[in-house]
Amino acid sequence: MTEVLLERRYRPIPEDILHRAFEVLDPAKRGFLSKEELIKYMTEEGEPFSQEEMEEMLSAAIDPESNSIHYKDYVTMMVKDEN
């Protein structure tokens, strides 16, 4: 996944669209997903992530103190990395 992003094979998705995608997974609009929720969505829905892809995402996305992903911060980080 990182290789694909670094080689810029696909155009980046705008920040607002990424944010809305996470909000779909967070109907209560808490602003975060638990590690368990994220793993469930990314491995059981749609095209599942491999174990390696999941570990890579978790290492970048999960806040170790809360054990959750604050997706607004994560999306901002992803978009900044693309520029």
Q: How would you explain this protein's 3D organization?
A:
The chain has one domain (2-82): EF-hand (Recoverin, domain 1, Orthogonal Bundle). 59% of the residues lie in helices and 5% in strands. It contains 5 helices and 2 strands. Helix 2 runs antiparallel to helix 5. The longest helix has 12 residues, at 71-82. It is globular and about 35 Å long. InterPro entries: EF-hand-dom_pair, EF_hand_dom. GO terms for molecular function: calcium ion binding.
Concise synopsis of the structure shown:
By secondary structure, the chain is mainly alpha-helical. It has five helices and two strands. The model has no long low-confidence stretch (mean pLDDT 85).
Classify the fold: give the CATH topology: Recoverin, domain 1
Order of helices and strands: HHEHHEH
Q: Note the overall shape.
A: globular
- Secondary structure class reads mainly alpha
Cα Rg: 13 Å
CATH homologous superfamily - what is it? EF-hand
Q: Could you give the order of strands across the largest sheet?
A: 1-2
Count, helices: 5
Total of domains: 1
Overall average pLDDT: 85
Largest sheet: 2 strands, antiparallel
Quickly name the level 1 CATH class. Answer: Mainly Alpha
| Poorly predicted runs of 5 or more residues | none
> Residue share in helices?
55-70%
Q: Please indicate the percent range of residues in DSSP E strands (runs of 2 or more).
A: under 5%
How many extended strands? 2
Q: How many angstroms separate the termini?
A: 17 Å
CATH architecture: Orthogonal Bundle
